[in-house]
Amino acid sequence: MRGESVFPQLEQLLPLVAKPIQYVGGELGATVKPWDSVAVRWALMYPDAYEVGLPNQGVQILYEVLNERPDTLAERTYSVWPDLEKLMRERAVPQFTVDSHRALGDFDLFGVSFATELGYTNLLTALDLAGIPLMAAARGDDHPLVIAGGHAAFNPEPIADFIDAAVLGDGEEAVLEITDIVAAWRAAGSPGGRDELLLRLAKTESIYVPRFYDVDYLPDGRIQRVVPNRADVPFRVHKRTTMDLDAWPYPKKPLVPLAETVHERFAVEIFRGCTRGCRFCQAGMITRPVRERSITTVGEMVKQGLEFSGFHEVGLLSLSSADHSEIGDMCKGLADQYAGTNVSLSLPSTRVDAFNIDLAQELSRNGRRTGLTFAPEGGSERIRKVINKMVSEEDLIRTVVTAYSNGWRQVKLYFMCGLPTETDEDVLQIARLAHEVIRNGRAATGSREVRCTVSIGGFVPKPHTPFQWAAMDRPEVIDHRLRLLKQAINADKSLGKAIGMRYHDGEPSLIEGLLARGDRRVGAVIHEVWKQGGRFDGWSEHFSYRRWIDACEKALPAFGLDIDWYTTRERELAEVLPWDHLDSGLDKDWLWKDWQDALTEYEQDDCRWTPCFDCGVCPSMDTEIQIGPTGHKLLPLTPVSGLKVGG
Amino acid sequence: MSKRQPPGGQAPVVQRIRIRYTKRGPLRFTSHRDFARAVERAIHRANVPIAFSQGFTPHPKISFSSAAPTGVASEAEYLEIGLRERVDPELLRLALDSALSPGLDVVEAVEAVTTDSLADRITASRWRLELPGVTSDSLAAAVDKFLGHDEVLVERLTKQGRRTFDARAAVVALTAVEPPYGSMGAPCAILDLVVRQVTPSVRPDDVLSGLRVVADLEPSAPARVTRVVQGTLTAQGEIVDPLLKDRDQAAIG
């Protein structure tokens, strides 16, 4: 019977696996509805382990928005670890939701949120465990529609064979519209089956249905064109933008897990979008324009969220939280409200200026001082111009020294390696910067206790960014530069002792690069890797570079291609990119101009404070920048006293 | 910049409450760490006037008695909390219960009016084990064999590696119980077990290992284990409710 719980079968397996609580559900904030009480049923997945997936804001928001509808239910499913996967295969237990332990295959819609491309193999595991054919073309009317979302869905071509549809951009309104379409089609007696339903979705012009588009290739392997294969679907599919975040104050009832997860806090998005214009940053490009949540809504959400959840920590999230037009009042107001309550506040700090330290001071008034992170991203002044991260060396040193002088003893500096036009020298500048930071920090504090950690990530060119045309460096080049950097940091023994270095080797980045800018032909590689046991590719202990390279060597020659063609090859303006038919609002000519500006080390300002530079998003998406200040202040809360019985 | 001083002046404890709670159904898979976090949040959520320790990182005053292993259900887990304001224990029970997930149920709350610690009063537990695929007869035979030994060495994988220890001496009582009339389908024998708290602790699965060692007893699926009672073991082999003394004192006072 559809919608029946598989818990009795699963329960037999749980004593045999690690951390069984992650498969049990029972979180505060979880919603369970009777199967037959609704018209449309969603299963939502974050394709990683529960401990990573549960805190995901996107899934929590959609889960709540959908469950607020009386005619709809939404349940969650996460990737099961290999120990449970093996037992589930032996005992024929299907992929299940954690809410009611219903079989994934029973649902109408299966929405998967991809924050990273490295989750693709986990999608295949979930589909296979659910008994859903991996290939969308092989699915029938009884199988769920598989819909991809999240940032990686801005180029879903590598998984085009496995998904039925993709949604670009903000999800909260999109899921409601999809639900309406499914309900209406169902109420009309499901005319035309699965194909008709997908057609209705495609006609919205904001839901991409890969099967309705054909890709033609040139003899040299490049794409010739991507065109609809039927008359009634649009040539380009547009992203969604939810305007007025005050009207969408989710999550209201954050999920509070029993199992330990990576973020144990109540997170509030204080704005969406970013126009800082860092050229490597896909998130900053595809989420434009900036839409702030007002200080009063943030205050209300924090109050309700804490009361509901009992969390001790609040995170004020966004792509660059210090840029909220009322961040100062917000931090001061919240610090006042929660003074003496054992609630701590945190702000992901990436802006490199003294203001950031003022905020951090405000937030640590309660006695808890978390580390400070600054992200100059590039080691040399020159490379920072290339990536449009406008931070001077002087600013950086002054900021970090101010942090030391204010009592911080440990700061983290975040950089990237493998950036376009990068040379060994650019990376070696990181060592010099770190030395300067420590030297100045010691001088200013008179203490030898100051420390910094240099953390280095590999650059991956992403679709819909000015670097979408860029060539990646080979992993050997990255690894070589990191070795040089390590030597340079330790060349001065005294300073080197105060500097920690953290980095990942270049191999996973190359694979992420393959998946990020891949086309439909890369689907064969993903499939092969999965067949060879590829799971949890975002985890270094599960990722196998060899497995990916072997799969590339097996699958790509049929197309006359290899992994280098996808990763280390620079593209030209004329080349049709796999995602050109997917509209993020960014004008391709503007992106190209910004790419050329990068190569000539020419910087681009932020349109919040300078005139519009015509990136194209606002006019094409009919959106606008929404920022304060509103002039409102947070008022101190009236202290609540007495026991609270009932939710 | 001067060295930061720990913020002082945390309010003192004015009342201690002892609580019995359960781990039921699917939530028996909650580990002790998970539960400890959940309780902290529930206390916050229910607006319980919990007292905090002094120091740079003040901790809420909560102490747990030995927890049932992950995957084992329990009707009798205990903890004690220190409060900075007095509350009605029954109201506290209701508030905490509604702030925890169903299955983690707060069933009793009694003000601590005695000074000896709760941990000292817990010297033994009674467990109930359901053994799928095992018949009552084979279980009874295995129990006889087990009890016939003075020592039954079993192995357990611990963080320190494989350890061998005796699972017999700590067993106070071991009885095969007739399954309730009308239990359907495959056989499922039931075992009633009383174990003394010793170091290293002997857990129900160690006794099951013992039954495997002495009689090759092997359930067809993992046993379902429930801690039924915890408390003070008397000379007569009875287990006394560890909250009894506080309840009695409170009634007199």
From TrEMBL, chain A:
- Signal peptide range: none
MF GO annotations? catalytic activity; iron-sulfur cluster binding
Q: Which CDD domains match?
A: Radical_SAM
Q: Which InterPro entries match?
A: CHP03960_rSAM, Elp3/MiaA/NifB-like_rSAM, Radical_SAM_N2, rSAM, rSAM_horseshoe, rSAM_sf
All copies of the Radical SAM core domain together span 260-502
Name the chain's protein: B12-binding domain-containing radical SAM protein
Can you name the source organism?
Rhizocola hellebori
From TrEMBL, chain B:
Q: Which domain of life is it from?
A: Bacteria
Species of the source: Rhizocola hellebori
What Pfam families does this protein's entry cite?
DUF2344
NCBIfam families documented for this protein: sam_1_link_chp
> Can you say what this protein is called?
Radical SAM protein
Q: Which residues form the DUF2344 domain?
A: 16-204
